[in-house]
TrEMBL record:
Record protein name field: UDP-glycosyltransferase 88B1
Domain of life, source organism: Eukaryota
Keywords of the record: Transferase
The keyword Iron belongs to this UniProt entry's keyword annotation: no
InterPro entries: UDP-glycosyltransf_plant
Signal peptide per UniProt: none
Organism: Zea mays (Maize)
Chain ranges passing through the membrane: none
Length: 372
């Protein structure tokens, strides 16, 4: 009788920069002999064409990976109801999809009787901690996966204890350095914008609530490797990394390095064997090894920079004297932002108009700027 493969269910995030690395992780799991199923929140924003295209490419290129679109919920959260805050919208959406996720996992369990072939584990996108309610209820081991670096994971894990009740908010701290284990001192003003909100705001409260759940899974998978981030990984693996909780226990799950996960054909990059090499790859092939600084800040519109910030980055690159490859998306408008278009990658813009005068010409010999 042929042995039934253990199934690992992946529950990716709603942004292409979270989805694609998790699909690369799927390749690793397949090589280890697991069956892989993907539970995907059905897209609720028609403008998110980038993620939709990435899902289609993975479905076509990875027939061994089963992709299940969870049924759409009634009256899903709208980003306009969240004040245009994409992160708050994300947290609310994930929580609302707990019921469809539960139904999907239960259906897998029923299909895989006897019990010896039950779902082996669920791997969640890092910010999807509210889905842990489902895995705990069903008794399925759960792990969280972070496509980002280990330093960012260290910050997220320690945030709830960095700002204690009654102390100044991160915004009030301004440029006061924060003491975060494993990470060099960092001004509080460098934190992501939601953490600089009023502590009484819904976004801030939700962010802190989700952050407090980060130690709950059986383990944390990070897209990094030890020789790159040895200092912070040693801190993360220290039993004293987190303080004692309200229950009198100290719980820090094991941290596993699973990177670097490298994009390949069919992973959502749109580069296939029959297609010509992208101009940036051809340009990179002509540069000396280890000589290029790469700048790319993700696909989410809310992570875009203002024109002023783009000009500051350009000045820094020019003064550095280094070769560089810079991926730039349309700058955020100064007013009249349409929250429903935060995910729209199709906005065209004039690079020369948003960068310092003559920047492209002066840096042409050592730099390449690509519009996202």
């Amino acid at each position: 009788m042929q042995a039934i493969k253990k199934t690992i269910v992946l529950y990716p995030g709603l942004f292409v920069s979270h989805f694609v690395p998790m699909m690369q992780l799927a390749d690793v799991l397949l090589e280890e002999g697991y069956a892989v199923a993907v539970a995907l929140i059905d897209l609720t924003m028609d403008q998110d064409v980038t993620l939709a295209a990435a899902v289609d490419r993975v479905a076509s290129a990875k027939p061994s990976v089963t992709i299940h679109r969870l049924p759409r919920i009634q009256n899903p959260p709208a980003i306009t109801d969240c004040g245009g805050d994409a992160l708050l919208w994300y947290f609310k959406t994930v929580k609302r999809y707990n019921d469809p996720l539960r139904e999907f996992l239960c259906s897998l369990q029923q299909q895989q009787q006897p019990a010896r072939s039950v779902v082996h584990a669920v791997i969640l996108d890092g910010p999807s901690a509210d889905a842990l309610d489902v895995t705990k209820e069903l008794g399925i081991p759960a792990y969280t996966f972070y496509a980002t670096n280990a330093s960012a994971v260290a910050v997220f894990l320690q945030l709830p204890w960095t700002h204690a009740e009654g102390q100044p908010s991160f915004k009030e701290l301004g440029d006061t350095p924060l003491s975060i284990s494993g990470v060099p001192p960092m001004p509080a003003s460098y934190l992501m914008p939601p953490m600089l909100d009023d502590p009484a705001s819904e976004t801030y409260k939700t962010m802190m609530r989700v952050s407090r759940r980060n130690p709950e899974p059986e383990g944390i998978l990070v897209n990094t490797f030890a020789s790159l981030e040895g200092r912070v990984l040693r801190a993360l693996r220290d039993p004293l990394f987190l303080p004692i909780g309200d229950d009198g226990c100290r719980r820090m799950p094991p941290v596993y390095c699973v990177g670097p996960l490298v994009v390949g054909a069919g992973d959502g990059d749109g580069v296939g064997e029959a297609k010509e090499k992208h101009e940036c790859l051809a340009w990179l092939d002509e540069q000396p090894e280890r000589s290029v600084v790469f700048l790319c800040f993700g696909s989410l519109g809310a992570a875009a920079h203002s024109e002023e910030q783009l000009k500051e980055i350009a000045v820094g690159l020019e003064r550095s004297g280094h070769r560089f490859l810079w991926v730039v998306r349309a700058p955020l408008p100064t007013e009249g932002v349409d929250p429903e278009r935060l995910f729209d990658p199709r906005t065209d813009f004039d690079l020369c108009a948003v960068l310092p005068a003559g920047f492209l010409e002066r840096t042409r010999a050592r730099g390449l700027v690509v519009k996202l």
